[in-house]
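Predict the structure of Pectate lyase superfamily protein domain-containing protein.
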Amino acid sequence: MKFCRRGPIRAQVSKEVAVLLVVALLSIGGGESRKGRILVDESIEYTAISCRGHSASLTDFGGVGDGKTSNTKAIKAAIDNLSQYASDGGAQLYVPAGKWLTGSFSLTSHFTLYLHKDAVLLASQDMNEWPVLKPLPSYGRGRDAAGGRFTSLVFGTNLTDVVITGDNGTIDGQGAFWWSKFHGGKLKYTRPYLIEVMFSDNVQISNLTLLNSPSWNVHPVYSSNILVQGITIIAPVKSPNTDGINPVSGDDCVAVKSGWDEYGIAFGWPTKQLIIRRLTCISPYSAVIALGSEMSGGIQDVRAEDIVAINTESGVRIKTAVGRGGYVKDIYVQRMTMHTMKWVFLMNGNYKAHADNNYDPNALPVIQGINYRDMVAENVSMAARLEGISGDPFTNICVSNVTIGMAAKSKKVKWMCTDVAGITSGVTPQPCDSLPNQGSEKITTCEFPTDSLPIDNVEFKKCTYRMSSARTLLRV
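Done. Here is the predicted structure for Pectate lyase superfamily protein domain-containing protein.
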């Protein structure tokens, strides 16, 4: 299995208290058993960027949590009804315990979707419940096919102030249905993601388990002030393109992108000021953090720290190619611990997948200002494979205070470097000549910013709601 676990940017308290009053009626004559209905009050507490003035349960709109009945219409009716409160304190839709089969649905602004700890949003396998969208303008086509893409299970565009959270409730994409069609070449459109928001601002995605996504799991694109925390992502190791988080993740736990070739260059929206903290990743065929390969709009100021990687192909990977244009610069990674890796550092300037044949062969990417510090790795096959582009080297690479323990059957060449330039200090084993050692007195050379970004200053509120639901009680 591939596994990604994301810890919170700040400590978060999320709990649920269920109160069930059961009255047993004993018949003197030993009488009969009867079923009755009682109202059960459930109190939920969690922290979020916003609390809401109104709340309703999915069952209020005819939802049925049996895992068989489609709830697509019920969910859409609930969101449509609750949208009337957007300017009156906002609204929350509560998904109780149960398996809630559904196709794609769209959220509204000033809205919270909350999943009970035993709630499962179960992705429908009826393709009629998945509308098709145009390709992303910065991509020009779908990732799986030249056409459009199926709408994500939980979708939203042009939103503000949205919370998707729970007490570790589950969103199950039932991905095997889609993976089979993908491998069989039976899809005209790109597979859906689990959660996607576009052109949106102030969005929190937290305290959920994402299971078996058809493709990418969390995809915020053309959006700002996005907070993802307390997310567990699980998918089989060989599931195709089930990247964990793609801000614009088996596959990469966090994949940072910004557009593909000429389409990304023309759209020109960079990914900037991204913070990745307290991440645990298991992905034997992919990276913990991947930058690119679709980076034509530019990637800048990515800060990653306190990362654990276990049985993962590479720690940090930069992917690009001639024709991409754009840039990857000002990348900072510190305090990373790795166990059983193929590579610790990987850079590829020859990642040749292109959107089409209309890319500009003179559009060369700029890769510079890459900083890695304070890392420990063990059981590693090869310390680094750094391959720049001839005539367009990757520059200003800095590696300091890094100890890499090689595996018993490691590669004879510990570092492979072509068309790269930079410095190192306090690095074991000895790096390649193009990254000359500056001596142990320069061990803190590589930068890591000390200033805070706006997302660091998010203030959470404690939200409390009481929900009533009817349950069956066996009376004796």
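Residues 256-458 form a domain with the Pectate Lyase C-like fold (CATH 2.160.20.10).
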